[in-house]
Each structure stands twice: as structure tokens, then as C-alpha cells.
Amino acid sequence: MLKITITLLLLLGLTSTSGAENTLEIPDIGNSADAILSLKQERKIGDQFLRYTRRNVDLMNDPEVEAYIQALGERLVSYLDTTEHDYTFFVVNSAQINAFAVPGGYIGINAGLIIAADNESELASVLAHEIAHVSQRHISRTIEKSASVNLATIASVLAAIALSSQGGDASMAALSVGMATGQQAHINFTRTHEKEADRIGIQLLAGANYDPHGMARFFQKLHQESRYYENGLPEILMTHPVTLSRISDAKNRAAQYQIEGLIDQPAFPIFRAKVRTLVSNKTQQLEQETLTLYQQQPLPELAYQLALLENLNGKYSQAEQRLRQLIQQQGEQPWYTVALASNLQQLHQGEAARQLYQQALQIYPGNKGLTLNYAELLLQQQAYSEAVTLLKEHLRNSHQPTPGSYQLYAQAEDHLGNQAASAAALAEYFFLNGQSAVAIQHLENAIQAVDNDIFRLPALEQRLAEIKAIALEEKSQN
Question: Relative to the CA of 174, which of 211, 245, 256, 465 has its CA 20 to 30 Å away?
């Protein structure tokens, strides 16, 4: 088990990239990894990991942030030739610079890393590197070199990684123990994985039309800035040192691709501004700093960040004026609409906020940020039927519904007296948040509430059986 612990902890991700005009043909690594962890087992581990993470780690559950990072990740994944898993990308609400990949297609990015990226290509390079770790099944291939396998140990080690990403010392303590044993062969094997992930990442970047030099630039930035950290290296460099040789390799690989038609999204600075605002625990200080920067260079993202902070700090009229001016200058887009509607709610102008959402959803139908924020407003205004209709459509069309969607839907159905639908939705909310026992209770309540409805009862009973089986398996691993 110690060998597994060492190698898994060393598989925290670093920066990434992407590349090739068509889909990327990844190397055929054979089926040896299947003898250790099958694809089904990888998915189980990843599912369990994410539920544990949601229960124990502070994730950035903002719908706009969730939608942005998921869309960016999926754009990169689409350039893989084949994908065995659906990929889930999420943001950890931590100012530390870190990222990690987990079997089954789960990839976490710390807020601090997003803030450290100068453009979308640099952030995409991190995601592409992590995607390569998953697509090449590096954890399974590493475990193959170990003498024994215990899936419970794997899941617990991955959980320690998530806790460490937010600033805990669990995984770093385990890593120190591992390093003390002198398992150099396993460390070298992991360095091979890093080199492979760098290479595939740059191919993914170029294929998705991002700047393939984004990886080398981010490497270089981390290498230069690491000397200024008073309390040790950033987490991401603790397990993945960036050497001059690695930077040089990344530059040489990127130079093989022609740079044309790069697609850095104009929304990236807005996304980064919101992440910076959400992760801050000193909003008044950040507001003053942002105002100073804005006075020196009145960029749209600084105006947006300033308006968010003014709203958080109770300067509602000031924030409204700034947002309306920003929309007038830059045009309407969902980020600005959500910010202005939130601001209008604070000013007790709920009907005006409602009209904003309705107009925006006609232009951007299905937009997650607009939909879920509008649903919250409808609940506040006791427009429960409209909220149910909106959320039903969202859940039906969403590829990967997040817990917040189910929570809002449960509230809306509960207010309408639909206890079975509300309890079933709450069951999904608690299950996704790693509370299987509570989920089972709500499903049992839902089954009682449908009163032998032959159309709904079988589906509820099947879901109850599925969650009970998962809960029993997880309990046996502890």
C-alpha cells in the first residue's frame, strides 16, 4: 500500500497544453493497465473521489464558473481520438496554485492557478496536461508496478490530494513518508508520465487552436516566481519541479506547430475576475486595489471586477451605474447580465431583474449561469411553477447536472406540494455531495409519496437499489 500511496501522490498535475488540427491519436498503451484497474473501476474511484471532495472540500459552486471550466475542458477533450470517460472539471476555492487529475476523468483546478494564468492558453495548458494523465491511464499504469492493490487505499489517497489542494497537509505528510523510503524507481516512472503528459498536452493545445507555447510560458512563470514564495514552493511545484530542461522541451515541442487563428476567448479575463472576487476573503482591500488598477488602465474586466466587489461591499447604486456603463460600452453578455440582475435584487428591483433574465435567455437559451440564477430569483418571488418548468428543462438537457441544480429543483417542487419529486431531487443532491445515507432516506420518502404510482415507482426503486449498492461498497472499503 505504501508504494501505491507514494506514486499516487506524485501524480498531481502540472500545466498542460493541447494540440493537432484534427483529433489526436494518443499512443496505444495496451491493456496491461486493465489487469490492475479496469475502466469501470477507474470510474468508480473517480465517482467516489468527487463525492468525497464535494463533502469535504470547499469547491467554487458558482454556476458561471462551473460552466466555463467545463466548456474549456470539453473543448480540449474533443481533440482526443478516443475517450473512455466523460470528463468533469471543477474549481477548488483555494488561492494556492495547484491542479490534479483523478481516474475516471475528474480534473480539479485551484482558483489560485486560474488567477496566475495570463490568458486562456496558459489555463488550457494545465487542463490539457491533466487530460493527458487521465487518457493515458497513468495512475493505473503506475499501480501496475506495485506489489498489491487496494481500491479503498487508492480512494483515500486521492481524497488526501483533494484536501491538500485546499491547504491541508494530509497528502504532503504522506508524500514525505513516501519520499523517505527512497522509492526512486517509482519517482522516475512518474517523471516519465509527466514528460508524456507534456507532449500530449501540447498536441492537444495546438489541435484546439490554443497557443502551444502556453505551456512553456506557464512553466517559466512558475519557475521564476517560485523564488519569491516565503512559505515554500507552490503546491504544484512540490511534487512536479519545473526544470530548465522541461521548459526547453516544452518550447521545442511548441515550435513544431504553426501559430495561426488562436482562439483565446474574450470571456477569459471576465471569468478570471469573477474567480478572483469569489476566492477573496478581503473584499474591501481587493476593491481598493482594483479601483487603483482601473484608474490606471480602465479595462472591461477591471470594471466588472470592481462592480462585483462594490456589490459585495454594499455599494449597490455605485455597482449598478458601473455595470450599466459597462454594458453600454461592451454590449450585453451573460456575465454582465447576472451581475446586474444580482445587483438589482439588492436594490429591491426584482421585476427589473426578472426582465433582464428573460431577455438574456432568449439570446442565450440554456446558459447555465443565467438559468440557475434566474431560478433562484423565481424562488424568491414565489414563482414556483415557472421555476419548476425552467429547472426541469435544465436537468433534462444538462449533460452533467451539478448538486445545486437538484437543490433548486427540490425547493421549487416542495413549494408546489410535490413531495415525491422534491424528495427524489434531494436524494440526488445529497448523493452527489457524498452523503449516501441521507440520499437513501430521501429516496425512501419519495417511494412512500408516489403511493404505488406504476409509472414512477419502478424508476425510484431502481435508483434506490443503485445508491444502496454504492453505499454498501463504500462502507466495506472503510
Answer: 245
